Amino acid sequence: MRLAKVLSYITHPILITTYMLAYILFQQNSYLYYTITPSGRWFFLGISVVLTIVAPLISVGYLVYSKQVASFYLDNRKERIVPMAITVAYTFGLYYFLQKLSLPPILIAMVGVSIVGVATTLIITIFWKISAHMMGIAGFTGVILSLAKGTIPTSSTLIILLFILSGMVGSARIKQDSHSLSQVVAGWIIGLSLSYVTMGWLTQYPI
Length: 207
Description:
207 residues; mainly alpha
């Protein structure tokens, strides 16, 4: 159970956008590594941390404090709706900020994928409790697969590890009684396919 909790924490959906940006910004096989200064990479990553991690946590903290939601865990489906809507807004803020700086399209597209993923999770959650964790980790995997068909070579080892991690996260969510098997599987399939197609479309890579 302890491992399940650790996996749930380190693969929490609000961390995924920052993970994806970190992968691109510090990927030495990418041209971005040589076109953005080290200080610039850390600056953009810091902005992502503030807008997609710190700000949502503060917002959920206020919701807990004002008793609008029971806890940070958001186990109740209906309690997830407002925090997810807030997360969509913050992620869009990151998208708008990066776009104003005229950064390489691949970075902006990656944040766009996050917006689509969180918004889709929000819409589904209104009617059904899908696994946001699986949407997130599968979304990351889909982005990596899409980028591998473009200008950023990706090792098969990383892809295999992401698939293994997806299985471990799904098992952890079921073990914690947070989701059923159908909610986990649906989250993974939708997250993977949606991010793969969206990233390919936004970056104009063949898919």
